[in-house]
Amino acid sequence: MAFESLTDRLQQAMGKLRKKGKVTEADVKEMMREIRLALLEADVNLKVVKEFTKSVRERAVGTEVLDSLSPAQQIVKIVNEELTKTLGSETVELEKNPKIPTVIMMVGLQGAGKTTFTGKLANHLKKTENARPLLIAGDVYRPAAIDQLKVLGQQLDVPVFDMGTEVSPVEIVRQGLEQAKEKKNDYVLIDTAGRLHVDEALMNELQEIKALAQPNEILLVVDAMTGQDAVNVAESFNQQLGITGVIITKLDGDTRGGAALSIRSITGAPIKFTGTGEKLTDLEVFHPDRMASRILGMGDMLTLIERAQQDYDEQKAEELAKKMKENSFDFNDFIEQLDQVMSMGPLEDLMKMIPGMNQMPGMENFKVDPKDIARKKAIVFSMTPAERENPDLLNPSRRRRIAAGSGNSVVEVNRMIKQFKEARTMMKKMSNGNFDMPGMDQMF
Ligand code: GDP
């Protein structure tokens, strides 16, 4: 996940202050030096770094902060607020047309993730608004882009308008819009062509499409991995086309995240979504305050809860809560939960959204090995239905059979059953309101 080393560095810088009873102006200066370096290393634009550090410093050396009872906490609060401001302060929703259809045009360089995002957005609109979007395949220079969009359309059961690669994109958009009006689609999402670099021919074409389609939104899709370059690209698209929002993709990768932190300040255009993976569901609405809190290692419970709600069936959740309380959680539930949680994204990323988790010892090395998950599943699948429902049946001879059946040693089977039982006991305690959980990490 992006921002990992930035989070560490910021926490270190601010952690030093926490240890001090009294914070002096010199301490603040030292912390700001470290924060500045951390931001520069994360590839944040120099101008943005300067503005950010200036505002934090000015507010932090204000007498009321340094003289307060908890100066370190006050300063963390200021850093959080200024970071939120740099990221755009408010969540900015998609602009809508009072009359249907709302037209959204995707622009950006080749490979930034436009086509993928077009599919993700269609999925998001369908899920959250029950929308009926039409996708227009306007990228005629990369033939695979049309097929890619059609495949996404099929997966989502959303219509895709295309005219192959021989017709001009402007004409395709014109006819696509006509079809959308006829069929009363409420959204039209236009996937346009990218180039390797910003060039005049591309801009002319996009300007023509803009003039014709009069889009409500022109969303620039940029790849977080390209760092400072993403900021330059955003500036030129904005100057020549006037973008209304930015989508930052590939934040799941090993990026330093500087682009995400700089783009709003440099272009003035709000970040509206972030891409966090290749799957259609790997899209997050961008909330500056939540992102700031995540970057500072303070967790993001709201996003975690929303993600869980998206994937969760309420009735099932209630059944599960009942089972946890009664201690009747069995191996079938275990597998179901494992699949459910794994579908929400890498576990180590989810864990980091829980406030305080970042500071837990050993958390930086916490990794879930997919092979380990597969092994646990194999063990469960080698149990009989009766054993899965009643783990107490698992006597030594049954355990030997399961070990042989799943290709594991008896020691591993024993360990997994022990962990399962411990987790079950802990869940019972938690569901009865006891959150004191030593050894929580063992559960995974
Ligand atoms: P386009 O040329 O701008 O239309 O780019 P594509 O949509 O074809 O995306 C280029 C590549 O980036 C594809 O392999 C996508 O699967 C991948 N991609 C797009 N968005 C994301 C993302 O948020 N995370 C990751 N890891 N990969 C992405």
Protein architecture, described:
The protein is 56% helix and 9% strand. It is α/β, with parallel strands linked by helices. The chain folds into three domains: 83 residues, Four Helix Bundle (Hemerythrin (Met), subunit A); 197 residues, Rossmann fold (3-Layer(aba) Sandwich); 132 residues, Orthogonal Bundle (434 Repressor (Amino-terminal Domain)). Strands 3-2-4-1-5-6-7-8 form an eight-stranded mixed sheet, sandwiched between helices. α1 packs antiparallel against α2, α10 packs parallel to α11 and α17 packs across α19. The relative contact order is 0.10. The structure holds guanosine-5'-diphosphate.
Secondary structure elements and their pairing?
Elements lengths: L3 H15 L6 H17 L4 H15 L2 H4 L4 H16 L15 E6 L6 H16 L3 E6 L4 H14 L3 E2 L7 H15 L3 E6 L7 H14 L3 E7 L4 H14 L3 E5 L8 H10 L3 E5 L7 E3 L2 H8 L5 H11 L2 H13 L4 H12 L4 H6 L17 H12 L3 H5 L6 H11 L3 H22 L13
Bound molecules: guanosine-5'-diphosphate (GDP).
Keywords: Cytoplasm, GTP-binding, Hydrolase, Nucleotide-binding, Ribonucleoprotein, RNA-binding, Signal recognition particle
Subunit structure: Part of the signal recognition particle protein translocation system, which is composed of SRP and FtsY.
GO molecular function, one term: GTP binding
